[in-house]
UniProtKB/TrEMBL annotation:
Residues 37-414 form the RCC1-like domain. RCC repeats lie at residues 34-87, 88-139, 140-193, 194-254, 255-304, 305-357, 357-420. It comes from the Eukaryota. This is Ultraviolet-B receptor UVR8 isoform X1. Keywords: Receptor, Repeat. The gene is LOC107425342.
Amino acid sequence: MWRRIGLPFAKTTIGSGLGLVRRLVWTKSETGQKFAVVWGNGDYGRLGLRSLDSQWRPAPVLCSAFHDQGIRAIACGGAHTLFLTEAGSIYATGLNDFGQLGISDDTNYTTEPVEVTGFQREIVQISAGYYHSCAITADGELYMWGKNANGQLGLGKRAPKVVPRPSKVESLVGITIKMAALGSEHSVAVTDGGEALSWGEGGSGRLGHGHESSIFGFFQSNSEYRPRLIKKLEGIKVKNVAAGLLHSACIDENGSVFIFGERAVDKLGFGGVNNASTPAMISKLPCSKEVACGGYHTCVLSSGGDLYTWGSNENGCLGIGTTDVFHLPEKVQGPFLKSPVYQVSCGWKHTAAISEGNVFTWGWGGSHGTFSDEGHSSGGQLGHGSDVDYIKPMMVNLGKNVKALQVSCGFNHTGAILEHA
């Protein structure tokens, strides 16, 4: 993939308390070749760099297992990462405590990508949730694996609580799945006919089926163990779906955005309620083409390339220059005033977007992180060489002669697909 001169980047030491900071200097390579870079928390080998170290700036995933295949897509989950090659093969790295890597049930984690096998056709799409994963084949079949405690794999009520190998969702045989998105404990998908399906943990209304929690919230199960049609969206052709921690969203063929789950419609003109247990349309948005859901924030990309965000705004994850909560969609400005946004992804409390071939990140940088130990940071997921928060979009230094094609945010790590320009 790269002309091999030791490594495809130079490693230089920059004076900081963070140790070595890698400055990317890509060697000349064949135009159009695609590869993956990762950064952020390195616990359990989720970055696939053969170590447990965190990365403060983008580092290329050099893996002999790829056999020089170009990398088409990346999906970052809770503490694991999936890679999809140009040939339609999947590789996984990171934590495997619930079988989310899809490689075996006796490996707790791996620090470098391992091939995931068991598919009858080539894979065209991948998605990673907090503890579970999925893949869609070229003929629209859905395979899932990982944690299944709340039915999030869609394999039926009698399926095991942990499924360590890819398993076809048999109830969907004969139905062509075009897209799937995985949240913390639930899954959503859309068929080629535009029908929206959801399954898994239904608390907080995140499945859109009208589940109402009991008075104390734990006396009844709201789980769906097989994919179930979202009735309120019948007759509406859905094109894009997203799943977050406790909420979900979708966009129809007309560019209308529907959202459901915890904090989904807080003060958005629905009586001030926090949860919408069935899809509610957000009227304060222009024609939209992509939606992304994070921990407690949501991003929508308009057909014209404008980015809108709203939600809790912890650590500045909305990118609007403040940490104030926004209950209504707010346009993200800064660098996007002059250049349209191409793609967006949400982590737990950080966000990434692509504009004109560059990656921009903002939100939680990792300081005082969930997994910090003895004052050491657990982050770096913004890729700016530090663990501080940014409340406005900041461009990630990807080096020269490359452009970004895709970006994916995990819980506290980030990955991107780059192409040699």
